[in-house]
Amino acid sequence: MRGKDYLKGKTLTNQGYDTHPLSTQKGIVARDHYDVRTCDVILMNLLAVNKVSVGSMIEVGWASAYKKPIITVLDLTDTESPAAHAFVKELSSFIVSDLEDAIDIAISILGT
């Protein structure tokens, strides 16, 4: 929500879009694409998801194409998870079942 203070106190539509340029469909996609392209690492928490986020899956594809390390938090024993898809598993650089482990990996990659 960085840079979106204008949304404080607003109720968004069921699609989550607003008329502000950063909150339109085009604005959201442009900003997210920029963020993936310019970041150093992707950390994706897919624990206990009950529905696949199309946007998140697109971002995984972008991250892979840009050769970004992808750290995915995923319970591989949850065979019903819609996030346990072959593309998620194969594009992820690291898969861990605990958020703390994911953070540790990110810190190691970033060298901080």
Protein model, in words:
The protein has four helices and three strands. With 112 residues, the chain is an alpha/beta fold. It has one domain: Rossmann fold. Strands 1-2-3 form a three-stranded parallel beta sheet, sandwiched between helices. Helix 2 links the parallel strand 1 (42-45) and strand 2 (70-73). The radius of gyration is 15 Å and the shape is globular.
Low-confidence stretches: none
Molecular shape: globular
Strand order of the largest sheet: 1-2-3
Q: Biggest sheet, open or closed, and with what strands and sense?
A: 3 strands, parallel
Question: Any idea how many domains?
Answer: 1
The helix/strand class is alpha/beta
Order of secondary-structure elements:
HEHEHEH
Named CATH architecture: 3-Layer(aba) Sandwich
Overall residue-averaged pLDDT value: 89
Helical proportion, percent range: 25-40%
Count the strands?
3
Q: What is the CATH class name?
A: Alpha Beta
Distance between the termini: 24 Å
Beta-strand percent range: 5-15%
CATH topology: Rossmann fold
As a whole number of angstroms, the C-alpha radius of gyration is: 15 Å
Number of helical segments?
A: 4
